[in-house]
Design goal:
single chain, 163 residues, alpha+beta, six-stranded antiparallel sheet, three-stranded antiparallel sheet, 3 helices, 9 strands, 17% helix, elongated
Length: 163
């Protein structure tokens, strides 16, 4: 007997060939968990409200951009922060470091690359690069922990560390 397995989308195909018998295909609903992405990019245009009176992106807004990057990386992997929070777990920032290398200005089109640097049962570390074209404007890192609604440290959800 020769047995082969194929996964296409949400369907698992099992092909079995027996001597003297025509091949048979068995379908089963096999839900394959999408792989957790390690890196993701988003485009951001600096809005007027985010700029200071001189037209530069205010430093506080970079941190909002990093949160957007983390959220979209998780979403692109099939994750959903809302579902994690509804289950009683919350991801909180425990450390955030940023190096400002060059300024961004109002109406600049930027690219934010968010990378999972490390994921463990206790913490999730990200690295960020914010660019205007080929120019690196900012590099940053963050560390997140998982807590319950009382602020007690919890194990990271499986959907985050199983990547």
């Amino acid at each position: 007997m020769i047995e082969s397995h194929f996964v296409t989308g949400a369907i698992a195909l099992r092909l079995i060939k027996l001597p003297g018998i025509v091949a048979r295909v068995f379908l089963s609903h096999h839900r394959r968990k999408p792989a957790v992405l390690k890196e993701h990019e988003i485009q951001i245009r600096v809005r007027y409200v985010e700029a200071d009176p001189m037209g530069y992106l205010h430093h506080s807004n970079y941190f909002t951009y990093f949160e957007m990057g983390r959220t979209e990386l998780f979403r692109a992997s099939g994750g959903n922060y809302r579902e994690i929070e509804e289950s009683g777990q919350f991801l909180v920032v425990t450390k955030l470091e940023c190096r400002f290398l060059a300024p961004a200005r109002y109406d600049d089109e930027l690219t934010l690359r968010t990378t999972i640097a490390r994921a463990s049962m206790a913490k999730l570390e990200h690295a960020y690069e914010l660019r205007r074209g080929d120019t690196l404007l900012t590099s940053a890192t963050s560390v997140l922990a998982c807590v319950d609604s009382n602020g007690r440290v919890q194990r990271m959800p499986d959907c985050i560390i199983d990547g």
